[in-house]
Amino acid sequence: TARWIFREACLKHNADSNTWRAWARMEAKENQAGDYESENTAKWIFREACLKQKADSNTWRAWAQLEAKENQAGDYESENTARWIFREACLKHNADSATWLAWAQLEAKENQAGDYEGENTARWIFREACLKHNADKVWRAWAQLEAKENQVGDYESENTARWIFREACLKHNANIATWLAWARMEIKEKQIGDDKSENTARWIVSEGIKQFSKATILYRLSAYIELSIHSAETARRFLRQSVQYSESDVGRLAILEFFCGNIDTKDIFCTNNLMKRMESKTSYSFNALLYLYHCCVLLRQTKDAERYYGQLLQRPEYKSLDTTVEEFIQLCQEALT
What we know:
Strand content: under 5%
Radius of gyration: 26 Å
Structural class: mainly alpha
């Protein structure tokens, strides 16, 4: 049976962490969590794996999350509570970024943000993870916590959202998602600026592109920023750069070129040529199908629009109430008026 195989593998054949975790999850699904006194329950398996078999971070995290789900966030003095497990994993067993993040999120949910002076608060955990344990995936969540707590702050003051984002991106090799979150925060704060003014949205995206030159999402955000301040030509330039690396922005560029009057020319970026490019992708690309439909509506190509709409209705991804493309069309219109 599955139970016999899992127990045999783990207790007699030196199974890896994935197997221990799968065994525990099966028991949790079949018989709830159980307790720590009874062998072969999910809780017993997790404890055995983590404390005696040197299980990996994923297993420690799954154990803590099981306890949290069972409403056992508990305290740090009592063994086997979610809090005790997370602290044990992070401070004594070299847990990974995802486990530090889960611990901080647990505290944020249970006790709000806390402060930096008291150990085990969300803020203390975030700072400890980022500055002392090089938990690279945690920076963005830390900054977002501070922003949510109305601590956008400034760049000179430690532990403010602005200071955290800058520290993460310029000194700790933050990923694209962190660069994006930083730029979006500054957009929200109405700090659009320009690519020469440090720490403004435009400068942040420009610096991000230097780090991730083929990240189309950064070019796309730049285009949206430019359109929002009625700089359509610059937006075109960013989208034209984006479509060199991916198909994801071809539809947006086709719409923008339409409003710029570049509809049917020899230019490879004219609306008609971009539509031909998308037409070759319709068999598998929902995005291409969606933008082709909207392009046909703008061009008043009724029959083609109806054909594409019929195909959209057959796609499970299609949501008639999603107005993302309509909002982009309005943004383009406003930028050129």
